[in-house]
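so ive been stuck on this for like two days lol. basically i have the seq below and the ligand is adenosine-5'-triphosphate, smiles is in there too. i just want the complex predicted, nothing fancy, no docking runs or whatever. if the output looks off dont worry ill sanity check it later, just need somthing to start from for the group meeting slides
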Amino acid sequence: MNMIEVKNLTKKFGEITAVDNLTFQVAEGEVFGLLGPNGAGKTTTIRMLCCLISRTSGDARIAGYQLGNGADSLAIRKLIGLVPDNVGLYEELSAYENLDYYGKLYECPEAQRKERIEYFLKMLELWDKKDAPVSDFSKGMKQKVAIARALIHDPRLLFFDEPTANLDPESARVVREFILKLKKEGKTIFINTHNLDEAQRICDRIGILKTKLLTVNSPEELEKRVWGSRTAIQVEKMNNRILAAVKKLKPKSLSVEENRIILTLADPQRENPDFVQAVISAGGRIQYVTELTAGLEETYLKVIEETK
Ligand SMILES: Nc1ncnc2c1ncn2[C@@H]1O[C@H](COP(=O)(O)OP(=O)(O)OP(=O)(O)O)[C@@H](O)[C@H]1O
Ligand SMILES: [Mg+2]
């Protein structure tokens, strides 16, 4: 079943089109990431899907419930949890009180509330500080409380708007692992992120958004589609004889960076040995042969560039 189904979803703020005609699906149990530059419409998309703002046109369904339909909105709110980009906690209340308050709002029974609050605060390494007012917390600690808050009513679908933006590398890792754990429990996760490495590590599929949805793909496919893999042959000393020998084998592309030859090949595993042989026969002394794959960062910039 698709947990999220979006069709031609559009949001305008006056003259500005913030989100233009999005169509995509997210399967139950999937981790779906939305990547895009500032102002791309990521937060706007999440806000629409969480029933916080209305859409201008198009359709969306969450677990079969229709967005913007009064009766369905309530059902949608019950089955989703949101970690927003600005965490907005009650500063004068403690971490525990914040979570307890939300639990009550969602009508979680007291015993379940207690159990879940303890579980999450321990998990996120905040149990020691449970009684301190949130105003004394660092940004990262507040972020963690917001994560616990989003989970208190045991939602099936979780939205994270840049969940690790304020976190140090260690806390970011805790949060990422936590997200993967939620996935293992069968939750569906929708995440906005600027962190390309993060998207690559935790997402099953990534959509690249810049007002319009430019592409949706697995991290691996995205990388391959835009770049493919390349072979780098590094020699002790580059010369024209080596280059001529390599050109003779007709690689799909060839560039030279100092003493490295960078090749794109149709079938690298079959062709690499021939290229190595050619370099050696031309008198080249090979120091390294390496596979180069583009990081998601390069891929992402390239997709954005191509659609400018
Ligand atoms: N309430 C609003 N009123 C008017 N314009 C808005 C409003 N909210 C967002 N926008 C505009 O919509 C566009 C998309 O904004 P949005 O916050 O969704 O981007 P984003 O991808 O989340 O960016 P960031 O990476 O900076 O968080 C921007 O041009 C923004 O100025
Ligand atoms: Mg945003």
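The chain has two domains: 2-224, 229-292. The domain at 229-292 is CATH 3.30.70.100 (Alpha-Beta Plaits).
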